[in-house]
Amino acid sequence: MRRLSAKGFLALLLVAAMAVSVAGCSTGSSSGKSDNGPIKIGFLGAKTGNVAIYGLNGLKGLHMAIDEINAAGGVLGRQIQLLEEDDAGQKDQATNITTKYVTADHVAAIIGDPTTGITRVAGQIANSHETVIMSFGSTGTGVVEIGPYVFRDTLLDAIAGPAMVDYAISKKGWKNFALVTSKNNDFSVSLSSIFRDAIKAKGGNIVVEESIQDGDTDFSGQVTNIKAKSPDVIVFSGYYTEGGLIMKEVRKQGLNNVVMIGGDGLQGADFWKLGGEATEGSISYAGFSSEQASGKTADFIKKFHDKYNEDPELFAAQAYDAIYIIASAMKAANSADPKVYRDKLAQTKNYEGVSGTITFRENREPLKSPVYLLQVSGAKDPASAKFTLLDKVPVK
Amino acid sequence: MAQFLQQMVNGLALGSIYALIALGYTMVYGIIALINFAYGEIYMFGAFTGLFLVLTWKANLYLAIFGAMAFTTVLGLVVERVAYRPLRRSRNAGRLSALISAIGASIFLSTLMVLLHGPATTGFPTLFQNRNFVLGGASISLYQILIIGVSALLMVGLDLFVRYTKTGRAMRALSQDADAAALMGVNTDLMIAITFAIGSALAGAAGVLAGIYFNAVQPYMGLMAGLKAFAAAVLGGIGSIPGAVVGGLLIGLAEIMGVAAKLSDWKDAFAFAILILVLLVKPSGLLGRSIIKKV
Predict the structure, then answer these.
(1) Do B20 and B202 contact (CB within 8 A), yes or no?
(2) Looking at the domain assignment, is residue B28 inside a domain?
(3) What is the pLDDT of residues A202-214, one digit of tens each?
(4) Mean pLDDT, chain A, whole residue set
(5) What burial letters (b/e) apply to B165-184, b meaning 16+ CB within 10 Å?
């Protein structure tokens, strides 16, 4: 009984603390969000550290979009002001920044974080303060489930995986699949179950399933098992390091006409640096490619190139789209208050973005089309090898 | 059947690498009853030295192996001099201190390589065109022939050295009774240093071979390989040179046969399950002699 009452007291204390903080926020926010000054948007992402490349590329897209919007008169007659803080890819810093955005700056929306892990943390804070947060990079699970104010405009594995399998079966005529999973990699385990379901649903056969671990270097046993079943293609759901080494072993054992297909985990130069020629023709998917662009995407690429003297990549394109989607929801709702425009945002349907067409489904998960299929070419010379666009697959 | 043979070949190649590293463990243990846990890192430095020689000086296969062996010999001597010898001399330091010092040396060496190279995996440039030979339904690659061949050559060489040279005889004497050997005029410090040097050279060769075979070199590669080789040494009977070879091959085969039997998830567990079993059932190992404590 003693323990129970202590617990009860703690719970009461927590409830009280929450009530105070919620009250504090709601009085503050009304003044910040509905006045006639600039509309504040907070950027959340890393500008330094290991994942800085995602944040910095996203910022390029954001700056471009905001300059365009402001030059065209802004949103609802108000200019957009971007607040930038660097979370360095650290959850504790992201927590501080998000809290500052929602309680001190009273931003109308937060754009970020590009990673799933930090979006999960920041999403909790933004959602509890009824501020819209839109990630331009997270693809893992447990993001939009946080609550009604959490969004993302990325290509999800659950959409891209089946699209890839469909392409393999209907366009390439591959029927017999070898499925390889890295068992100590969450991403690989969940992507494998997407691939497995898709292969079965679309009439393919999984002739052999093998498992490896991230960090393994000897795959001779698994490859011998695979070779014995002579599959048409190897599906690998893990990362580029193991992917490259597996393909090297596949060729070493004389299995010569089989390529690897997999998720965006294969997209790293180490894939062909480690696998060499063996990776030629391997296929992976992405939410964006700057090749063979048309219409709005072609315009975007040209303007981006003029401004930064480089081709935009995935995160720049998705960050660019994120701010435009929010701006158009604000216009439709005639308000920059997230509590008001959130409903319009959730109803976004067939929005023509530069990274594809975006629809938010009922659970706010994005449905994006097309899926870009990329193929390794020039693997013979790892210094100049790259992923080139193989096809754009529309998603229904 | 062909697939079974194929898996045997895969297992033998993997086992040869474990055997080469296990030799170093077993030799050092045989002489001074110390588990040199920095061994895996010496193997890792061997792989990096080979890689460096190939990348910067365009060294061929043999030069890479010999260069790596030379470098790891020196490295092994330095580790012995810095991390172990002072403890051996000190009256207060027991076996446990030496073991802790070994673990410290291991962590130091792997983090040093992270600083020098970064944590990423690097591939080995192609040194020769691979070919596959068909042997009773199983195909054996030139890489596998290289691994098994070079390992066998080094192991036979070591056996002959220990058996027929004066130094080898001194080493054996030392392992039987260090004090008596010293009284007979054996320079124990020198012999211990030579043992470290030989073991390190073998680990260096194993590192280059593994780098070429797996096409992957990274700073933490020594940890798991070292632990498995240690399990191999215990399985064969720690202190016994033929035991290390047999143990290494058996661990390699067990791992690959596990994968062949669709137990890939348990791959890393095999070596250690065997280690525990051996310690429970026959602590002296397959070919080890049981140690009778003299009072």
Answers:
(1) yes
(2) yes
(3) 999 999 999 998 8
(4) 88
(5) eeebebbbbbbeebeebeee
- Does residue B77 lie in a domain region? yes
> Residue B75 is encoded by which pair of tokens?
């490295």
Average pLDDT over residues B17-37: 86
Looking at chain A, which residue has its C-alpha nearest residue B10?
A220
Asked if B215 reaches chain A (Cβ–Cβ under 8 Å), the answer is yes
Count Cβ neighbours within 10 Å for each residue of A237-257 and write b for 16 or more, e otherwise.
Answer: bbbbbbbbbbbbbbbbbebee
The half-sphere exposure of A279 on its side-chain side, counting CA atoms within 13 A, is 34
Whether A228 sits inside 8 A of B14 (CB atoms) is: no
Domain that holds residue B241: 2-120+129-281
Q: Which domains does chain A have, with CATH numbers?
A: 37-154+294-364 (3.40.50.2300), 158-286+372-393 (3.40.50.2300)
Q: What is the CATH number of the domain that holds B79?
A: 1.10.3470
Kindly state the average pLDDT of the residues A372-377.
93
Instruction: Name the residue among B1, B5, B7, B2 with its Cα closest to residue B262.
Output: B7
Give per-residue pLDDT as tens, A202-260.
999 999 999 998 888 899 999 999 999 999 999 999 988 899 999 999 998 889 989 99
Partner residue facing A221 (CB), from B122, B224, B256: B256
The answer to whether residue B288 is domain-embedded is no
B93 falls within a domain: yes
Residues from chain B contacting residue A211 (CB–CB below 8 Å)? 264-265
Contact A274 B7 (CB under 8 A): no
A245 to B13: CB separation less than 8 angstroms, yes or no: no
Distance between B59 CA and the closest CA of chain A, angstroms: 19
Closest CA to A75 of A40, A100, A30: A40
Range in A218-222, B92-96, B281-285 with the lowest mean pLDDT: B92-96
Residue B133 predicted with pLDDT over 90 = no
pLDDT in tens, A92-145: 999 999 999 999 999 999 998 998 889 999 999 999 999 999 999 988 888 999
- The average pLDDT across B172-190 equals 86
The shortest CB-CB distance from B256 to any of A215, A216, A220 is to A220
The residue type of A92 is D
Contact (CB<8Å) B121/A274: yes
